[in-house]
From TrEMBL:
Lineage, uppermost ranks: Bacteria, Pseudomonadati, Pseudomonadota, Gammaproteobacteria, Pseudomonadales
Keywords from the named record: ATP-binding, Cell membrane, Kinase, Membrane, Nucleotide-binding, Phosphate transport, Phosphoprotein, Transferase, Transmembrane, Transmembrane helix, Transport, Two-component regulatory system
Organism per entry: Marinobacter daepoensis
Biological role stated in the UniProt entry: Member of the two-component regulatory system PhoR/PhoB involved in the phosphate regulon genes expression. PhoR may function as a membrane-associated protein kinase that phosphorylates PhoB in response to environmental signals.
Residues of the full protein shown: 171 to 441 of 445
Catalytic reaction annotation: ATP + protein L-histidine = ADP + protein N-phospho-L-histidine
Protein name: Phosphate regulon sensor protein PhoR
Enzyme class (EC, first level): transferase
Amino acid sequence: KPHIHLQIQISLFGDEDRLIVAKDVTRLYQLEQMRRDFVGNVSHEMRTPLTVISGYLETLVDHGEELPPKWRRAVTTMAVQASRMEALITDLILLSRIETGEHTVDDTLTDVEALLNQISHDAQALSGDKNHQITLSISDHRLLRGDESQLRSAFSNLIFNAVKYTPAGGDITVVWSTNRDGAHLLVKDTGIGLDPIHIPRLTERFYRADPSRHKDTGGTGLGLAIVKHVLINHDGNLEIRSKVGEGSEFICHFPRERLVERAPDNNQNVP
Ligand code: ADP
């Protein structure tokens, strides 16, 4: 049965008068749906040929010394670009799945503490020689009702961004805390920061604050769009604060209804 989508705007005039405008946005909604499906399908179709190309390129790189010297650089460049394209396709597929709500988020419980431990560990590896000081602090050990793989994508995008956009030796602080309003994940860095005028558009697909400043970070421009949609799926929202040259703070807010007590640990007394 076809659905009709209406956008309703109510304006108040004084105490009594109301102006109600209802606009039929069904067509717009359908177009948006078609766009999502199209992007999702194209990405899927491109993945297989790309995997084949990358595979052969990797083999060529591995046998670099057998290639004529003038070909080596070309082959290495092709391999790097092919793997960038693979990252892009992976993010596009993920985003279109998350946007269409293909995953249900309500029935699973995520151990945020364990998740953040793993991601911080991976972030330290990503930091490598840049030796960032990554500090994780957890003050609430309850579980979060929500899809672990989506939350993993969102949290790792934020924490890996902090590593990418912070010069060597900088500090990255990750804090999971709760209060009356709900649960909050703060990811704070002492990195390059960004001009706050960009903040409203930062979660748009492919939007980058200043492409010339970080063309070598190898991002896809889809990370924060993924974060935004994961938070929408979990009734949460994203807050961003930043100052050029000083650093940035990305805060994910989740409503308190999503927090769940841990079941008692039955293995505690096993010898
Ligand atoms: P990208 O793949 O480019 O990192 P994202 O969607 O993850 O894409 O981020 C969008 C843009 O937001 C980035 O290009 C960058 O300009 C800015 N940004 C994201 N995280 C940070 C951060 N921690 N510090 C400074 N700028 C950031």
